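Researcher: Please translate sequence to structure tokens.
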Amino acid sequence: MSFIRIENISKFFSAMVNNEAEGMPALAGISLDIREGEFISIVGPSGCGKSTILEMIAGLQLPTEGQVIINGEVVREAPPRNREALKAYEKKFFLRSPVHNDFFRNRQRFDIAMVFQDHSIYPWKTSIENIIFALKLKNVQKESLIPQAEQALAMVGLKGFENRYPYQLSGGMRQRVALARALAVRPRILLMDEPFGLLDTFTRERLQDDLMAIWQRTALTVVYVTHDIDEAVYLSERIVLMNARPGVIRNIVEVRLDRPRRRLESAFTDICNNIRLIFRSEMRGEYTHGVI
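Model: Translation complete:
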């Protein structure tokens, strides 16, 4: 049974062309089933809607058509987190949508955390303060805040750096803090949007190894967006290949390699080269939809 089900979603954005509003298709008819505990990557060129898919899984935006279902429940817009957002929410939905009517009876909160390419940690807070802030948003009990934050930092190899500010950390360490913040809230689903894209090769590969170790220990369901084919093959059980404008799924590649994986082995490089061949053939219009 699918844990996350994406059912025929499309997304259109409005744009002004010659002073008239026109719909710009970002995604067209995307369907995908993701198993609980699976590590799946989405790979494709810029503009194919990879990040949009993550945001719709998280409930940060809604599809124009279709729906996202997590563990049997349809994902709606994320509920408000403060008084101002609640007022805007009520104004938007008052007497017009079942979302408003269900809000106080059944506040949908899927156990989802997200890590972005930019670490997005607060520069005026220490490592542990950044994590405690996230835990407070999840209403974690006061006596559990520090132990839970310390455990998350230790999990990503930052024990001893609890009281450092972001400017005192390297780029890789700042991204570790962002990952620790996501793990601290103990999600069932981890969404990652090119989290290592701005790092050097050595730091990126080390963080990939750390992420693999965490995934194997926690059984998280991970949906990972990347431009890096080698990274996708190294991390994933399946790789979704997308084409752009509008974004569509062209292929799903299963990675049947034992772990730990070795980047220089012929089986690894064969899969990477096969994916590159698929993209090149697609650009020339020689390849049609399929699963390999």
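Researcher: Any highlights?
Model: The first helix runs from residue 50 to 58.
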